[in-house]
Amino acid sequence: METLVVDHPLVAHKLTTLRNVQTDSPTFRRLTDELVTLLAYEATRDVRVADVTVDTPLTPMTGVQLTRPTPLVVPILRAGLGMLDGMTRLLPTAEIGFLGMARDERTLQPATYADRLPQDLSGRQCYVLDPMLATGGTLAAALKLLVDRGADHITAICLLAAPEGLSAVEKKLTETLRADHGATLRVVTAAVDQRLDDNGFIVPGLGDAGDRLYGCS
């Protein structure tokens, strides 16, 4: 599994404001939208395209367009919804599937409560939206579900990641996926923070992304 930390001054600037406890929900939502668009620009460098011929006002030329099937964008409810507009701004023709997964705050294990995804994802590129890669349980379960349905190129876009979470995702997928699954897995994030605290929250982090996006717990 590859991890890409997007090193850009605008990414760092927006992330710093998101971390600030004084940032209100409307500002938090706007900055999340802007930050995801910047992350998505890097995350889609490997999006699949095919040559196509078009006529300019002067002459025919060969360019590229997205191949079919188009990419599938999968926000993990609820906080992933706050990242959806920023992602689809760059991929307006992408299909969108929804996956509801919640972390049990006692066991820290993920539980699926909603699945609105195609059953057959053979040959699909998927982009998973999950703001916080903390313990890694939720993301690992989501990635495994997509691979099991045939997705062969999956990129998770996260605002923040913890080292423990990245290690846990890689370990869990190595243990549960077939050696010959052939899927490419990648995490794109604005920063890898210091650690998790005893409650499974990222430190220094930015708090609970869902609560800060929507103003309620």
From TrEMBL:
<feature type="domain" description="Phosphoribosyltransferase">
    <location>
        <begin position="5"/>
        <end position="215"/>
    </location>
</feature>
<feature type="binding site">
    <location>
        <begin position="130"/>
        <end position="138"/>
    </location>
    <ligand>
        <name>5-phospho-alpha-D-ribose 1-diphosphate</name>
    </ligand>
</feature>
<feature type="binding site">
    <location>
        <position position="208"/>
    </location>
    <ligand>
        <name>5-phospho-alpha-D-ribose 1-diphosphate</name>
    </ligand>
</feature>
<dbReference type="InterPro" id="IPR005765">
    <property type="entry name" value="UPRT"/>
</dbReference>
<feature type="binding site">
    <location>
        <position position="202"/>
    </location>
    <ligand>
        <name>uracil</name>
    </ligand>
</feature>
<dbReference type="InterPro" id="IPR000836">
    <property type="entry name" value="PRTase_dom"/>
</dbReference>
<keyword id="KW-0547">Nucleotide-binding</keyword>
<dbReference type="InterPro" id="IPR050054">
    <property type="entry name" value="UPRTase/APRTase"/>
</dbReference>
<feature type="binding site">
    <location>
        <begin position="207"/>
        <end position="209"/>
    </location>
    <ligand>
        <name>uracil</name>
    </ligand>
</feature>
<dbReference type="Pfam" id="PF14681">
    <property type="entry name" value="UPRTase"/>
</dbReference>
<feature type="binding site">
    <location>
        <position position="103"/>
    </location>
    <ligand>
        <name>5-phospho-alpha-D-ribose 1-diphosphate</name>
    </ligand>
</feature>
<keyword id="KW-0808">Transferase</keyword>
<feature type="binding site">
    <location>
        <position position="78"/>
    </location>
    <ligand>
        <name>5-phospho-alpha-D-ribose 1-diphosphate</name>
    </ligand>
</feature>
<keyword id="KW-0328">Glycosyltransferase</keyword>
<comment type="function">
    <text>Catalyzes the conversion of uracil and 5-phospho-alpha-D-ribose 1-diphosphate (PRPP) to UMP and diphosphate.</text>
</comment>
<keyword id="KW-0342">GTP-binding</keyword>
<comment type="similarity">
    <text>Belongs to the UPRTase family.</text>
</comment>
<keyword id="KW-0021">Allosteric enzyme</keyword>
<keyword id="KW-0460">Magnesium</keyword>
<dbReference type="InterPro" id="IPR034332">
    <property type="entry name" value="Upp_B"/>
</dbReference>
<comment type="pathway">
    <text>Pyrimidine metabolism; UMP biosynthesis via salvage pathway; UMP from uracil: step 1/1.</text>
</comment>
<dbReference type="InterPro" id="IPR029057">
    <property type="entry name" value="PRTase-like"/>
</dbReference>
<dbReference type="GO" id="GO:0016757">
    <property type="term" value="F:glycosyltransferase activity"/>
</dbReference>
<protein>
    <recommendedName>
        <fullName>Uracil phosphoribosyltransferase</fullName>
        <ecNumber>2.4.2.9</ecNumber>
    </recommendedName>
</protein>
